[in-house]
Amino acid sequence: QLLEPVCHQLFELYRSSEVRLKRFTLQFLPELIWVYLRLTASRDRQSNGCIEALLLGIYNLEIADKDGNNKVLSFTIPSLSKPSIYHEPSTIGSMALTEGALCQHDLIRVVYSDLHPQRETFTAQNRFEVLSFLMLCYNSAIVYMPASSYQSLCGMGSRLCVSGFPRQHEKRWKEHCGRVVLDPDFMVQLLTGVYYTIYNGQWDLGQEVLEDIIYRAQLELYSQPLLVANAMKNSLPFDAPDASQEGQKVLKVEVTPTVPRISRTAITTASIRRHRWRRE
């Protein structure tokens, strides 16, 4: 009785022009996806209708711009001739050649999500196309999500990957569910979110779901999520990162000064002259 009005309210919040209201709805996306896939696996269509409508509504809003045209998600590779917090232009070989080569060419635009058609209903063919795109939207705003959403993401990943397999009996869950069909592209998007949660307060849960994803990828022989998950596992530090301070992000970047600085102890022509004058 409560599910339908809650889904309706979440959709109304998401289609508003306020960004914070959209993020409020997005924080529940992992739990909504888990409930939807669990009910789909159990063939409970009656209870699944409002969640399906909410997920499709968010998807159709995200694939189109304000004018109703389908949008392409892309980013532009920045020019190395301009300073940034990651590099200093003067340290990149021949500056004249670098600037001349880059200024004569347009900036490279990389598309990471092509055009997506509008969907009116879920089918077996388009289900994970929609869900993978929704996870992409969640990952793009994951930095704004609360800790409860990170825990929900990890819980969703573990349940989806081990439900219906012997590994689920090792979990302390109140109830066990049947096997849920998964898609390799969806698992890669799931790994993207898990990677962020591992370094931002969910060290134990993140590692647990990472092992569960590897377990499922091995059983399904999914090469892409298996490659990504093993790369993540092998790059993890031995101990948990220090995230004791509230609001502190573990992944830090040291800002590089944009203006080259000369060390105080550097030997210059003026210092040599002063040294000679003192000796004389």
TrEMBL record:
Belongs to the Hyccin family. GO terms for cellular component: cytosol; plasma membrane. Its main location: membrane. It comes from Eurystomus gularis. Pfam families: Hyccin (PF09790). Coiled coil: none annotated. Keywords: Cell membrane, Cytoplasm, Membrane. This is F126B protein. It is found in: Cell membrane; Cytoplasm, Cytosol. GO terms for biological process: phosphatidylinositol phosphate biosynthetic process; protein localization to plasma membrane.
